[in-house]
Amino acid sequence: MTVLYVLDVADFRPLAEVASKEPDTTVHRRGPYLEVEAAGGIRIERGATGCRNAVWYSSVAAVAGGRVARWDKVELVVEPIDEAP
Amino acid sequence: MSISEQAHVVRGVDHAAFPTFDPRATITFYRDVLGFPVVHATCALGWGPGDHPDFIHFFFDIGNGDRLAFFYYFGVAPYRDAAIPELIHRARHLAIHVDSEEHLLEYRRRLDASDWPCELQVRHETVESIYVTDPNGYLMEITRPLRAITIEDDIDADVSVDALMDVAGEDEPTLEKFFARKATLIAERYMGEAEQVTFA
């Protein structure tokens, strides 16, 4: 299970909204964060978020059960990793 | 009122001070180009140890009662950090606040009409900034807010700094380790049932 947290403010909310359209992906509100959870990896296309450069590259709050495998001007990809037992 | 319980009673910047070896250019830049009023100048015979140079310590008002100050030392050879890496050089800077885009662009106009034109204008995460290198080689930023800072931003900053404290105390800190530590802190602090969010 891969979890991406973004802060629930107008700048970063589009990432959760875009991610939520993918299959097997859910979004919950956890404190001030939006918790994006996916069975596999999480892939978010930058163009679909409308984020400008500085917002895009500061949009990740935290990652659990995964690692950022790609984060460039095209997309953000969080890949699952084996969680410690 | 007692201040024994770590009340936050400081009131911003009194002054930030830097050496200058070119007071004429410094005064031209800050007073005449940017329009920062000169508000104080201490003209002193060398003090303390016998070899302390005579100096002028002069101050510009940078708004809000805050001041930017320079020391000019008579008879001291100019010094610059020649070997400083560009990354570190640009990290050290003073950012002065303006309230609006109109005010930011006014300072850009003043710079662009001078010998020190604006070098860069950037929309960051929460602020938009212009940058210029002053006559002393110091990077200076003027910045305006793009949005209000919310309680969520403040909470996130606290979690980030706590995660950084943990990761920076370990061997080979990385952003990946930071994101993982922060996720653990978020899960601990906001454990329990979470409300599912749907987007219309």
Topology record:
The complex is a heterodimer of chains A (85) and B (200).
Chain A (H helix, E strand, L loop, with lengths): L1 E6 L5 H8 L4 E6 L2 E6 L3 E4 H4 L3 H4 L5 E3 L1 E6 L3 E6 L5
Antiparallel strand pairs in A: 1-3, 1-5, 2-3, 4-7, 6-7
Chain B lengths: L14 E5 L3 H11 L4 E7 L10 E7 L5 E7 L12 H6 L1 E5 L3 H12 L7 E4 L3 E7 L5 E7 L5 H18 L6 H15 L5 E2 L4
Parallel strand pairs in B: 1-4, 5-8
Antiparallel strand pairs in B: 2-3, 3-4, 6-7, 7-8
Helix pairs in contact in B: 4-5
Account of the 3D structure:
The complex is a heterodimer of chains A (85) and B (200). Chain A has helices at residues 13-20, 46-49, 53-56; strands at residues 2-7, 25-30, 33-38, 42-45, 62-64, 66-71, 75-80. Chain A is α+β, with helices and mostly antiparallel strands and 85 residues long. Chain A has a 4-stranded antiparallel β-sheet, covered by helices on one side. A 3-stranded antiparallel β-sheet of chain A has the order 4-7-6. Chain B is α/β, with parallel strands linked by helices. Chain B folds into 2 domains: 15-145, 2,3-Dihydroxybiphenyl 1,2-Dioxygenase, domain 1, CATH 3.10.180.10; 151-188. Helices cover 31% and strands 26% of the residues of chain B. A 4-stranded mixed β-sheet of chain B has the order 1-4-3-2, covered by helices on one side. Chain B has a 4-stranded mixed β-sheet with strand order 5-8-7-6. In chain B, helix 4 packs across helix 5 (175-189). Chain B is globular, with a radius of gyration of 22 Å. At the A-B interface, strand 1, helix 1, strand 2, strand 3 and helix 3 of A face helix 4, helix 5 and strand 9 of B. Chain B: Residues 12-145 form the VOC domain. Chain B: It holds the Pfam family Glyoxalase. Chain B: InterPro entries: Glyas_Bleomycin-R_OHBP_Dase (IPR029068), Glyas_Fos-R_dOase_dom (IPR004360), VOC_core (IPR037523). Chain B: It comes from Pseudonocardia dioxanivorans (strain ATCC 55486 / DSM 44775 / JCM 13855 / CB1190).
